[in-house]
Specification:
It contains eleven helices and no strands. It is mostly helical and about 270 residues long. The protein has a single domain, classed as MetI-like fold (Orthogonal Bundle), CATH 1.10.3720.10. Helix 2 runs antiparallel to helix 11, helix 6 packs across helix 7 and helix 7 packs across helix 9. The longest helix is centred in the N-terminal third of the chain and has 31 residues. The radius of gyration is 27 Å and the shape is flat. It is a multi-pass membrane protein. InterPro entries: ABC_transp_perm/SBD, MetI-like, MetI-like_sf. Keywords: Membrane, Transmembrane, Transmembrane helix, Transport.
Length: about 270
């Protein structure tokens, strides 16, 4: 029995194949060149066509006054500021609150917190802004509070949903190898919940761009100034500039958020895709 040897057919070929690693499937890129270029090209074409139309259009004195002296760039910059600041505060409020409400000690408070967040979005934006102006006075602060209250819900609900959707066996396995509660949260729970959280952030960003147009009614500025000026003065060119810039900004923000959603998604979650 000691001298007996077992050998497969074609053993000479198997010896050479032992050192060859198995072929691996090529990793697909996270985004295609079409996704990177299509929307920016469309936006550039639309903005260029708008600019060329204004160059050859005959504008009256009131329209020229509404669009001159840097008023358009000032309104655009104010709108970007309103969107960026409100989104920052939405993130630092909604994500930590969502994490807290999924911990065992605070789970009972989750329905009350969600009901409160639903109230912020269920209230008509213009009515909420009017109430905040009465309370806080005219200015950017009232507009920011209104925008934040309106955009908290999607980030909060997606954070809670993403953390609750985690497989309990994975969390138990992480605890079983000695990971602390903070380690389980930061290294297991949050990475698995990233896709849902980023989807909520993307929704909140687009909501903020749209809601920021109403900031003009509270003295907050933004592209809403051009839109309301065009409506009240019945000057369609002014209305067109404000509307086109608002739509272009919303589409650009959504495109950037979609890229961030792809880039920040953990690669381990792409297995089997």
């Amino acid at each position: 029995m000691r001298g007996l040897a077992f050998r497969d057919e074609g053993g000479g070929q198997s010896d050479g194949a032992e050192g060859t690693p198995p072929p691996t499937a090529a990793r697909r890129p996270r985004m295609s060149w079409q996704k990177l270029t299509f929307l920016p090209v469309v936006l550039v074409a639309v903005l260029l066509a708008t600019w060329l139309w204004f160059e050859q259009a005959e504008l009256d004195a009131l329209t020229r006054n509404a669009l001159s002296d840097g008023r358009v760039s000032k309104a655009l910059w104010q709108h970007i500021e309103l969107t960026a600041i409100s989104t920052f505060f939405v993130l630092i409020i909604a994500i930590p609150l969502g994490i807290l409400l999924t911990r065992r000690m605070f789970r009972r408070a989750s329905p009350a917190a969600m009901a409160f967040a639903n109230m912020g979005q269920a209230t008509p934006a213009i009515g909420l802004l009017a109430l905040l102006v009465i309370w806080l006075g005219i200015g950017r602060r009232a507009a920011l509070v209104g925008i934040i209250a309106y955009a908290v819900l999607p980030v909060l609900s997606n954070t809670i949903a993403g953390l609750k959707a985690n497989d309990p066996t994975l969390l138990e396995a992480a605890r079983g190898i000695g990971m602390s509660p903070l380690g389980v949260l930061t290294r297991v729970e949050l990475p698995l919940a990233v896709p849902l959280i980023l989807a909520g952030v993307r929704t909140a960003l687009v909501l903020n761009v749209g809601t920021a147009t109403l900031a003009t009614f509270g003295g907050g500025g933004g592209l809403g100034v051009l839109i309301t000026t065009g409506i009240t003065s019945q000057r369609m060119p002014v209305l067109m500039v404000g509307s086109i810039l608002t739509v272009a900004l919303a589409l650009l923000v959504d495109w950037l958020a979609s890229l961030a959603e792809l880039l920040l998604r953990p690669r381990g979650l792409e297995a089997g895709r």
